[in-house]
Design a protein that fits this description.
By secondary structure, this protein is an alpha+beta fold.
Length: 99
């Protein structure tokens, strides 16, 4: 939906979950497809999410989060959300534009 706007500011939207690729494909298919790549943090379980500080140890899953990394690999922005509906892509775009 907002992917083109993110591409205009030279960024790429990616999803990440600790599910296997098969489970991710089934989930994406149940939604009619997701317009961005989904990465699997399946094994070692949660290692990537944990490295960004967004892994929920109790639940064994990543928190719902946005991580913005610049082209040099420097983390510029991290925010976690309680629910997907709390995430406003326009706010994230404005933050990216201000970096």
């Amino acid at each position: 939906m907002h992917n083109a706007a993110f591409e205009e500011v030279d960024t790429q939207v990616l999803g990440i979950s600790c599910d296997s690729k098969a489970a991710q494909s089934a989930f994406s298919g149940s939604l009619g497809g997701i317009p961005y790549p989904i990465l699997s943090d399946f094994y070692p379980h949660g290692e990537v999410s944990d490295s960004y500080g967004v892994f929920d140890e109790k639940r064994g899953t990543p928190k719902r989060a946005i991580v913005v990394v610049d082209k040099k690999g420097v983390i510029k922005f991290i925010n976690t959300y309680r629910a997907a509906m709390d995430l406003n892509p326009i706010d994230v775009l404005e933050t990216i534009k201000s970096l």
